Known about the structure:
Blueprint: E1 5-7, H1 13-21, E2 26-28, H2 39-48, E3 52-55, H3 58-70, E4 77-79, H4 87-98
Parallel strand pairs: 1-2, 1-3, 3-4
Helix pairs in contact: 1-4
Amino acid sequence: xALRFYMDVHIRRSITEGLRKKGxxxxxxxxxxxxxxxxxxxxxxxxxxxxxLFSMDDDLLTEATLRQAGGxxxxxxxxxxxxxxxxxxxxxxxxxxxxx
Length: 100
């Protein structure tokens, strides 16, 4: 089964569009009318949709760590530091993950 991604509000449109061109199933928080949700709510929403949240927000790592420690289930988080990854790298990496 392919991973499906939920894109945090801070993800560049070029990454989302590049993934879609590669056939990766992606939904953005904006498209889901959830751009104003807090980090915990955003992670919960992605999990409700059975989607892995892709983020460049350090705070979401903290939320995911808290959920793991507390045994609170969630679909997953993929994090990339916005200054340490190019658009092309993000597309390639997420495409590879999507087919696992």
